[in-house]
Amino acid sequence: MAPHEDGEPSCPDNLHDLFEVAETLFRASPLCSPSHHHYPSSHPPSPHREDWEHQMWLRFLHTLLLPLLTLQREDLPSLQLSLDNYCNHTISSLDSNIAQSTALSQQLKEELDTVRSSLLPIVVSSPIHPHPPLLLSLLNADLKQMEDDARSKIAYYSRTLALQSRLTASGSPVMNLDRLQADKRLAESHLTTSMEMKSVVLSLTSQSVEDHLQPVSDDLPELTSRYLGLQERLGEARDSANHWSRKKVLALSVREAMEQAVASLQAGHVTAGMDISMHGGRSTDVLPEASHYQAKEEFTTLSERVKQLLDMAHSPAARLHNSLVQTVQMKWFPAMCNGFVVISSDMTRTLPSPRTRTQSWRRHFSFKKTRTMTSPSSPPPSNMAEAGKLLHIRFQEIVSALCDHLADHDTGFTQQVWLCYENLFFDNFSSSFLSHYQSENQKFCEQLRVNALSVSVLPPSSLSLTTPETMWLSLFPPRSFGDATLLYTQSLEDPDVTSEPPQLAPGLQAKFGPVVTDLYCMARTRAPLHKLQLLTSAFRKTMASLSALKLQSLLEEGSTDFHLAGVSCDDLLPLLVLLLLQLPPAFLCQLWLHCLLLEDCCPTFLQAGWHGYSLTTFRSSLTVISEL
């Protein structure tokens, strides 16, 4: 494909936009720069960084598939060719920029060494002089580096001389010992000189302005100006080289993901035009009623085909396999849940006849059994509660079988099961149905009462055996299926929470009112995933507001050290304590209870990353308040 006259490779109109979207997605993901943009610490709060990066890559690749799925199959070959040309042109330009920046850095470094060699004797020979503080600081840093280099050379020459001495004793040919000893003596001389000059520079730094006299050399102002200018230009050149290097890493990552996604579409491993939603595991492109078994067979066949293909490829492509498996899961599992909701909705309104119920279950759930399940032809239930319970058990068994079948492909699938179950199942059951399970929460509430009494901030009167905050857990406790943990929750509002969010002091409401609103919404909902998401949202908004305040303060002071606007745990904890102290004590008790429940009940994969960091910080803030 011939390039245009301006040197840019020709490509379909949507390729530039597509590549820009991919770059934006990758830049926004924690993979791009986790230490500066996405986590308060230098590493994400995950015990296994490789697993974390792998999951972030899968999430990015799956998100990248969404715009590609809108393309037509016949457009893919030209897109692949244009993608190669475009990426090669981009990476070639970045390589050129990196080479230019590196060459400029080397040239400026040589000039800086020359100027420094002329400047240092003048500065050291005039111990009383109004030297600029920046000059002294830079010279001190350079002398420290020269001292470290000299020490490294001395250590190297000492090890080499010791080795050569042993070789000489054994009669083997050796290097020129006189040359090595001369080099070592030269390095020792450089070390002594740099240490003496460093001592003088440090003494100049500690002098007061009143002790300063006029310069003793006419060349000193010019050399100082050149030295400071070269230091600034060298810093800019190194920053430029680092910038282009990061851009190249970004371009390579995006190209790899784009190539994998396009190759996947070309091979027909993902259906073009398939509508996938990342929110709640829902899909608007629901399979026909009678095609669930076919979808599962298609998924199994696809997994084997992709695995065989990737076994012959290099290791980075192994990420694609898991992403495709997850994509297929998101295609047919929500469809199965859709069929389940149809049945559960009918059952909560009116009990179907035995024949209708049996046919519906067989039509929607005709999967191969991997363990003993409730028979679809079971006797009809005698009332609505028994019908709902039987259906609930049936669905649990199906989910258990699916998790067993997908044990080798569990890339976020557990969370999708949870989302589907939470969003589709409990939205279609009435509170009257749930009331039949209230007798099952006695043991849990007693345990919760015992645990809560050991916490001073939570009064005993705030707990009741029938409190709605605890009902979702007592009704449907966590169940483990191998490594997959499912938490069954209801997405209902809590009527016991006040109808209006608490208000902060006027000076804080404008900046941190949205934080309190998220905390209030977290207290209103009963779904653990929703609680975690809202708690994390409140945490992020607190960080953003605090960072904005710090940045505004820096700008008012005229400072350019914008990195000081970053937020650390030492900044967050006092601020959260201050904000929470503005809230009513009863609301603090509710927040404490929700934090306890989330820590005890949520699966471990949801307590990593931002979710876990947010939960731990809020829990620590409430602990501090309880000890005041």
Structure commentary:
The chain is mainly α and 628 residues long. It folds into four domains: 13-101 and 245-271, no CATH class; 113-240; 290-429, no CATH class; 460-479 and 491-626, Up-down Bundle (Glutathione S-transferase Yfyf (Class Pi), Chain A, domain 2). Helix content is 68%, strand content 1%. The chain has 20 helices and two strands. It has a two-stranded antiparallel sheet with strand order 1-2. A hairpin with a 2-residue loop joins strand 1 (479-481) and strand 2 (484-486). Helix 1 runs antiparallel to helix 3 (49-68). The longest helix has 50 residues, at 76-125. The radius of gyration is 33 Å and the shape is extended. It starts with 12 loop residues before the first helix and ends with a helix.
The end-to-end span amounts to: 71 Å
Largest sheet: 2 strands, antiparallel
- The structure class reads mainly alpha
CATH level 4 superfamily of the largest domain: VPS9 domain
Q: Any chance you could write out the topology, listing elements then pairs?
A:
Layout: H1 13-28, H2 34-38, H3 49-68, H4 76-125, H5 133-169, H6 177-206, H7 220-266, H8 292-311, H9 318-349, H10 354-364, H11 384-405, H12 413-425, H13 431-434, H14 442-453, H15 468-475, E1 479-481, E2 484-486, H16 506-524, H17 528-557, H18 569-581, H19 585-601, H20 609-626
Antiparallel strand pairs: 1-2
